[in-house]
Description:
By secondary structure, the chain is of the alpha+beta class. It is built from 2 helices and 5 strands; from the N terminus they run αβββββα. It has a 5-stranded mixed beta barrel.
Amino acid sequence: xxxxxxxxxxxxxxxxxxxxxxxxxxxxxxxxxxxxxxxxxxxxxxxxxxxxxxxxxxxxxxxxxxxxxxxxxxxxxxxxxxxxxxxxxxxxxxxxxxxxxxxxxxxxxxxxxxxxxxxxxxx
Length: 123
């Protein structure tokens, strides 16, 4: 009888662990969403997060090599990305990009543009 109870408890613990792992994997696969303004840099493509004005340098290793060609500085975009490296500017690899509305350079926060200019990311 004790063996059956222990076996049942072990099965329940294993089931709970599987549920926890699958939830963590689902959260990881869903990625992080950033909405902000696109900036075409000297040798990089950036998004300036509209929540806090943080610039994030983007790569798109899993997408077409010309994925950024149709976007202009100031366009409001939504990206889905994986981990964000906490450098300045931050860096990430995106898995999805979507135009929300066309914009102009003046739509990008001036403070972010100034910082990027100081660092040589834009002219």
